Amino acid sequence: MFKEKASTKFVFFYLVIVYVFAFMFWWSYLLYSKIEQHYSDAVNYRGLQYEVFSGGERIDFFHTDEFQELDKQFKRQKLMILAEGSVFFLILIFGVFKVRQSILKEVAIARQQKNFLLSITHELKSPLSSIKLMNETIKKRSLAKEKQDELLQNALNEVDRLEGLVENILIAAKIENDQYGFNKEKLNLSELCKQLMQNYLQRKEIQLSYDIEENIYIEGDKICLNSIVSNLLDNALKYAAHSPVHLQLHTDKQNVILSVSDNGIGVADEEKEKIFDKFYRVGNEETRAAKGTGLGLYIVKQLVQFHKAKISVEDQLPHGAKFVISFAL
Ligand code: ADP
């Protein structure tokens, strides 16, 4: 349905372009023939007049100043059509290129927004359904304490996921409207990372390791930095399920370097820039196994830029992705 709409838009666009070009060539051709006709009429008419007025004595009109002037005028007009036509043609080509670019952009944004709506519906619905189901099970059946605790823990994990999702949507909306209140202070990034790792490590099913240099201080916003690291860890755990994830924090001469690496599917070279765009997700919503909204890395990049830092994604060998943030010291 969506593809149909986009291709209809393009068919219409190309039809208009073909019409405009055909129209332009047709009018240039008409103008040229008119000028040529005018020139040959003038040459014929003045040529005849010369024969009459010269009283029998033969004067070759083609060697007169008047013919030279007519000829010059004709050449000037030909050149004018050619030059103005070419300029118009170039402007038109440039315009077509720009309009095509903006249609493509609009189509991509519309597709991403459609994907976002699809995914957000799923992302909100599925944890709510499972929380409901778990609560109903606890209420209806008299379960052993252990089983009850397990279900409650699962329900809490789902609530955490929902909370993270809503948090991301709110941050993205605030960034978009320039309403995000950043609060920079001198903070111990090593402690912040360690604290976060402890929270993650409570989840038994994941393989997480870290290597954190002690007492690295930076000027930053605590909430933002938590969000940056959590988004990167969540992604690594999501896209590299059942394989180890590693967080490293260290300094070199000029930078503080924070990296999160995994041994998952990795990011193809042509996607390395795009994954930081808003709503962008690799592949198609229908074919994608891991669910998400395409907001995580967009938020991470915006927050990283607020810290005047840089983020990039590299290949992790033999396979996987490594997200590297470098803060200038
Ligand atoms: P989401 O995870 O909600 O789709 P993100 O903005 O966090 O949105 O990520 C954008 C895309 O980047 C993801 O859809 C995924 O395809 C890709 N991606 C992010 N992190 C990783 C990773 N660690 N390994 C492989 N692909 C990743």
Helices and strands in order:
Layout: H1 2-53, H2 65-140, H3 145-176, E1 185-188, H4 189-201, E2 208-212, E3 217-220, H5 222-239, E4 245-251, E5 255-262, H6 296-306, E6 310-315, E7 321-328
Parallel strand pairs: 2-4
Antiparallel strand pairs: 1-3, 4-5, 5-7, 6-7
Shape: elongated
Under CATH at level 1, the class of the largest domain stands as Alpha Beta
CATH topology of the largest domain: Heat Shock Protein 90
Q: Measure the end-to-end span.
A: 51 Å
Number of beta strands: 7
Query: Would you identify the CATH architecture of the largest domain?
Result: 2-Layer Sandwich
Classified in CATH, the superfamily of the largest domain is: Histidine kinase-like ATPase, C-terminal domain
Question: Can you describe this structure?
Answer:
- With 329 residues, the chain is α+β, with helices and mostly antiparallel strands.
- It folds into three domains: 2-112; 118-176, Signal transduction histidine kinase, dimerisation/phosphotransfer (DHp) domain (Helix Hairpins); 185-328, 2-Layer Sandwich (Heat Shock Protein 90).
- Helix content is 61%, strand content 13%.
- It has six helices and seven strands.
- The protein has helices spanning 2-53, 65-140, 145-176, 189-201, 222-239, 296-306, and strands at residues 185-188, 208-212, 217-220, 245-251, 255-262, 310-315, 321-328.
- The strands form two sheets. A five-stranded mixed sheet has the order 2-4-5-7-6, with helices on one face. Strands 1-3 form a two-stranded antiparallel ribbon.
- Strand 4 and strand 5 form a beta hairpin.
- It is elongated and about 130 Å long.
- Bound molecules: adenosine-5'-diphosphate.
- The site of adenosine-5'-diphosphate has 21 residues, from helix 5 and helix 6.
